[in-house]
Amino acid sequence: MPDFSKITVVSITGLQSVAPGAALSIMHSVQALPGSHGLLISPERPEGMPGWIGHVGIKPFGYLEYSLFVLYALGEFIKTEFALIVQDDGWVLNADKWQDAFFNYDYLGAPVHLARITQGTDAFYKRGFEWLNYRDRECRIENIYNGGFSLRSKRLLDAPRRFGLEFTIPVPGVCPGPPYALDWEGEVVLEDVWLCLTVRQKLEAEGFIFPELDIARHFSIEHAAPFLHSPEFLPHIFGHHSKFRKIRSLNPKEIAYGLSEQQVAGTYGENWIVDFLERSGYSIKWHNMPA
To answer: Over the stretch 157-205, which tens digit does the pLDDT of each residue have?
Structure first.
């Protein structure tokens, strides 16, 4: 039996509207990992959340402050060797696919669609898993591991403050609107991108271990990609994260899908994930269904 007492299953949100779903993800994941601990960090304790889940109250904040909190403050509240970050859109799928080898890494999450490619002196970003087309070329591929469902060592959580790693905000662009939003090339202000691109080499020089691609794809999935995933591979993945899939109920298990059935059919591999979730006992509330 794995020693899940090393893990605090934690969710952080500055939006109280998200907190009830985050609590469901914590409940589900802790119950799937016997001996682990549960902690929700949110403005208020959600009504009905079990008393065995701890709570830390914070002021409301948005996503940029979320990144700063995870990088510079979360370690203050984690007393175990590892934290498993979950959200209302990321939780344990197959607890029996846990591997003790996961404990060998300081940061572990799903491979995501975005990566930075360096060829000679030229560096550029590739999205939509196009970076996989460069794996056999003479170039450096810096791929990103998703933070929304991620395992992190306590020492990794403490590292940005301990080593004085500064978080610099570049000048943003503006996304077309309305609604308008700030935009950063390469999403460099997201905490998982910052860890995997901006400071990864500094952390690795200090002995922190990031995963190879194969162990990461067994740990979690965000979106399906050629070469990385297949319908047969999904039952072998430990967890998942995606803004498309939000947990809404545990008994019965229900997911609110942020896509319509037509959009799922047109998104590579998403229909495999839907089929797997339904076979795992989840009912789907589609985006185009009435509330």
So the answer is: 999 999 999 999 999 998 888 888 888 988 999 999 999 999 999 999 9
Tokens describing residue 50: 């079990």
CB 28 within 8 A of CB 53: no
| Cβ pair 222, 91 in contact under 8 A | no
CB 105 within 8 A of CB 215: yes
- Model confidence pLDDT, tens digit, residues 207-238: 999 999 999 999 999 999 999 999 999 999 99
Q: How far is CA 42 from CA 16, 53, 62, 105, 266, in A?
A: 6, 12, 12, 27, 35
Which letter does DSSP use for residue 96 in this model?
G
- Alpha-carbon distance of 240 to 192, in angstroms, equals 15
Average pLDDT of span 144-159: 98
> How distant, in Å, are the alpha carbons of 138, 160, 199, 203, 232 from that of 163?
32, 6, 11, 9, 42
Domain extent at residue 54: 4-243
83 and 125 both lie in a single domain = yes
**Are both 143 and 27 inside the same structural domain?**
yes
Q: In what order do the strands lie in the sheet with 90-92?
A: 90-92, 239-241, 220-221
Predicted TM-score of the model (pTM): 0.96
What is the number of structural domains in the chain?
A: 2
* 129 conformational bin, left if phi > 0, alpha if psi -120 to 50, beta if neither: left
